[in-house]
Amino acid sequence: MDGKTRYTVRYDTLDYADKTVSELDYHYDLKETEAGVFHRLYRHSVPAIFHPEAPGGDLSDLAPGDHTAEVVARDAAGNTSLARFPFRVEAPPPPAAKPPEAEEPAVRRVTGLAAVSFREDTLIVDTTRETGVAPDAAAAVFHTHNGDAGDAWIDGGLVLAEVPAGFSGVAEVAWRAGGGMYRWSGEIDRARNGGRIRSADGRAEARVAPSSLFKEFPVMVGRGEAPAAPGLTPVSPLYTFNRPWEPIRRKLRVSIGGGGKGAGIYLYDRGTWWHLAQGTSTAATHFGSYALMRDTAPPVIGEARVETLRGRPVPVVDYVETGSGIPEGGVALTLDSRRVLAELMPVVGRVRYIPETPLAPGTHELTLTLTDRAGLSASKSFSLTIP
């Protein structure tokens, strides 16, 4: 920036087998929203082995005005590419004026967790989400449960407020827009090494092991209705820990109480349920949305056929499993009353058997039994003819 090195990263020193460290480089949240694949040009929290120099990418000392930025990339063969572009620093906006006390009781709109997010330690409230109010917020203020008031800024339809260092508890953001007064309030927790984060009803908990986090950060837990899905029945509400792409060193322990027999804990991601474990507790790589679900439908076994693979006939059976999924040990295949080793292909919903020696021509009896993670089973027998 303006001829001064602000950040350097060396990928030939990065061990990609250590996936927790690589999270400090990739913008997984941007990839998740299909914005593209991006690398950070700043140090997220702690120096790592692939940050060989002191600069951390901090641009906070740049004066308002126009600057020139360069990004230089070199590959292992020494080829170099350079991108140069202008960069403008806007003067920081002043804090939004405090909303005046309303003569009438303020209109209260609980926007819910979907309207709230964090960027580092900044709380962001989308004032248009769920309220339908046009983005013309003119004044805002941030309060904590202990009476402290902080600065709040307005950026279009967003109200931003810095969460005080180490704060956890109830916070409120109030703003004036469209001739009315609006308020959002919620419980802010803080993820700490060796700490626990609980839902307001005490039923859901994320336990953070020591040395799991690269840094502490604020987080919120929301509770909503768990959507049903084919073969799955909700047993608990859907609990959302709203920092799903925060880099984490070690797995979390997520628990939800009150499951009952046959329930399992699932991750809900972009409209899809992912089975994590039977029971009420599981290890999780990140925060996210979790619920207890009960698998109510056994696998559905389709038809069998013979395909040719590398010049030899191969029995193949299709199946559909909409619930907890089939584990590796949930497949039992017999060929002519003899147990054989079957290959489970869950991505395409298929089971196949590749014999060591070609099957003899004629009719063969095939029986497939599938047992899902919830213990539900289905069996079906076939007669296959090998030409």
Provide an overview of this structure:
The protein has 387 residues and is mainly beta. The protein folds into four domains: 11-89, no CATH class; 113-189, Sandwich (Immunoglobulin-like); 194-295, Sandwich (Chondroitinase Ac, Chain A, domain 3); 300-386, Sandwich (Immunoglobulin-like), CATH 2.60.40. 2% of the residues lie in helices and 44% in strands. Strands 14, 15, 16, 18, 19 and 21 form a six-stranded antiparallel β-sheet that branches. Strand 3 and strand 4 (122-126) form a beta hairpin.
- Helix vs. strand class: mainly beta
Q: How far is the N terminus from the C terminus?
A: 71 Å
| Total DSSP helices | 2
Major beta-sheet overview:
6 strands, antiparallel
Strand residue percentage: 35-45%
CATH architecture field of the largest domain: Sandwich
Name of the CATH first level of the largest domain: Mainly Beta
Shape: globular
Helix content: under 10%
Which stretches are poorly predicted, pLDDT < 50 over at least 5 residues? none
**Count of individual beta strands:** 29
Count of all domains? 4
Mean pLDDT: 88
Over all CA atoms, what is the radius of gyration? 27 Å
Compact summary:
The chain is mostly beta strands and 387 residues long. 2% of the residues lie in helices and 44% in strands.
List the defining traits of the structure above:
single chain, 387 residues, mainly beta, Immunoglobulin-like, Chondroitinase Ac, Chain A, domain 3, 5-stranded antiparallel β-sheet, 2 helices
